[in-house]
Design goal:
The complex is a heterodimer of chains A (about 110) and B (about 120).
Chain A (H helix, E strand, L loop, with lengths): L3 E4 L2 E5 L4 E7 L5 E7 L5 E6 L3 E5 L2 E6 L4 E6 L8 E8 L5 E3 L3 E6 L1
Parallel strand pairs in A: 2-11
Antiparallel strand pairs in A: 1-3, 3-8, 4-5, 4-9, 6-7, 7-8, 9-10, 9-11
Chain B lengths: L3 E4 L2 E4 L5 E7 L6 E7 L5 E8 L5 E2 L8 E7 L2 E6 L8 E8 L7 E3 L3 E5 L1
Parallel strand pairs in B: 2-11
Antiparallel strand pairs in B: 1-3, 3-8, 4-5, 4-9, 5-6, 7-8, 9-10, 9-11
The chains are: A mainly beta (about 110), B mainly beta (about 120).
Chain lengths: ~110, ~120
């Protein structure tokens, strides 16, 4: 099956800092989603981005499908950005495979 | 749009009892729903995939008689943990995928099950 690696596993930032989270995957996919899991466990959809670049406020994501990686950028981080960020990939019509996540802590 | 409701959010039960968890797509029709399990500080593990009107497909190692899944309509799937034991304690999350061309999965808020 598809392997998904996320880095870094843990990241600690001061409020206002920028960060880049990476997701590498081992095979061709046509589904890639980024999620933020808040402290209560809710998975929040951030981006559906099997290829290309998207931006939503302070967040943006880029997927280079031919090189099998995706990046999530967080700018001007806030304490409310804390939580676990997951990348999940899949092939059309099938399961999503999740990475192990990046635990982000933003300190005031 | 694309809201998935999962109920209950938390349940505590005695060993040997059965627990039913509901997953509803509120504003779209979900031809496929997924059930995941998450251990503390771990990633999500897919347990099973259910398609409306047909039997669920279970992942390897998941006991289908322990985790009964029913997807009777395009907006509702249920997971029943039968004869629960303490080792079944976990965070269970459902997701739903609609009928559009995109394959976006939308997730419920999860159910924290504690078996005493």
């Amino acid at each position: 099956g598809i392997q998904v690696e996320q880095s870094p596993p843990d990241l600690i930032l001061q409020e206002g800092a920028n960060s880049t989270l990476r997701c590498n995957f081992s095979d061709s996919v046509n589904n890639l989603q980024w999620f933020h899991q808040n402290p209560w466990g809710q998975l929040i959809n951030l981006f559906y981005i099997p290829s290309g670049t998207k931006q939503n406020g302070r967040l943006s994501a880029t997927t280079v499908a031919t090189e099998r990686y995706s990046l999530l950028y967080i700018s001007s981080s806030q304490t409310t950005d804390s939580g676990v960020y997951f990348c999940a990939v899949g092939v059309s019509g099938s399961r999503l495979t999740f990475g192990e996540g990046t635990q982000l802590t933003v300190n005031p | 749009g694309a809201v998935v409701s999962q109920h209950p959010s938390r349940v505590i039960c005695k060993s040997g009892t059965s627990v039913k968890i509901e997953c509803r797509s509120l504003d779209f029709q979900a031809t496929t729903m997924f059930w995941y399990r998450q251990f503390p500080k771990k990633s999500l593990m897919l347990m099973a995939t259910s398609n409306e009107g047909s039997k669920a497909t279970y992942e390897q190692g998941v006991e289908k008689d322990k985790f009964l899944i029913n997807h009777a309509s395009l907006t509702l799937s249920t997971l029943t943990v039968t004869s629960a034991h303490p080792e079944d304690s976990s965070f269970y999350i459902c997701s739903a995928r609609g009928t559009t061309l995109e394959n976006i999965q939308y997730f419920g808020a999860g159910t924290r099950l504690s078996v005493l």
